[in-house]
Amino acid sequence: MVLTVAGCQGSESATGSTEHSTRTPTVSTPDLPAPLSFARLKQAAPDLQSMPVGWKVGATELRGRDYPKSAPCRANVCAGMTSHVELQYDNADSTGNVYIELTSYDATQSARSGYEKRRKSYASQQDRAISMPTVGNISMARTGFSEVSGQPFVSIVMRVGTVVAAMAYTHEQKANPQDMLALARLQAERIQQVQRGGRVTASLAGHKI
After folding, report:
1. What is the torsion angle, in degrees rounded to the nearest 10, for the CA atoms of residue 187, residue 7, residue 35 and residue 60?
2. Could you tell me the pTM of the whole model?
3. Rounded distance, CA 105 to CA 34, Å?
4. What are the pLDDT digits (tens) for 22-61?
5. CA 170 – CA 144 distance, rounded (Å)
6. CA 89 to chain centroid
């Protein structure tokens, strides 16, 4: 079964580790320089109504915060960040879940640096890179086994304009990369809709994963 999100298409997999990948997108993703506050970043996160049939709020309910310029961490660990959101959804039969982490930056260059840092930190040495169509402006997908549950997962880190998203889809038996791709495309499209200032309509409602 093919899962689609309106207005969101993939391109060739990013095989490089930096923004200077030689990939050639089939559809160009606008590189929108739109920093988001916590209130706006929350809108970009999928709500329950936009998730696939039967999915429900998981162990991590939506939470996050703004990072004002006066925040002490802006000098180091949260340099360039404007806001952060994280949440988790469980699938219909509670055999799998997706964890979503969104971080907005004050400029495109800050987001590029943030993407590189998150890409490197969101994997262990045991994980392996896998081929997946590019989502957003640049992305990297990996697969491995959860250090906590031992279950297989597929993860993706992507940059969509000034937002860096890290997502991991974990399943008791087999984490399907196509399911992760559908969820990542949903997330990327919602980010872009918020960055454009329009209604957030991207949804996988009616689909099954």
Report:
1. -10
2. 0.85
3. 8
4. 233 334 578 888 899 999 999 999 999 999 999 999 999 9
5. 10
6. 13
C-beta separation of 21 from 199 below 8 A: no
Question: Is the Cβ–Cβ distance between 11 and 23 less than 8 Å?
Answer: yes
Chain mean position to CA 6: 17
How is the chain split among helix, strand and coil, in percent rounded to 5? 25, 25, 50
Q: Which two tokens stand for residue 179?
A: 């399911």
166: β partners? 101, 157
- The pLDDT > 90 percentage for the chain reads 75
**12-16, 51-55, 97-101, 182-186: lowest mean pLDDT where?**
12-16
In the structure encoding, which two tokens stand for residue 94, read together? 């509670």
Cβ contacts of residue 181 below 8 Å, gap of 6+?
3, 10, 132, 133, 135, 156
Identity of the residue numbered 130: I
Q: Which whole-number Å values give the CA distances from 112 to 19, 33, 100, 208, in the listed order?
A: 7, 11, 19, 33
- The number of beta carbons lying within 10 Å of the beta carbon of residue 63 is 11
Hey, what are 18's tokens? 């930096």
The confidence score (pLDDT) of residue 106 equals 96
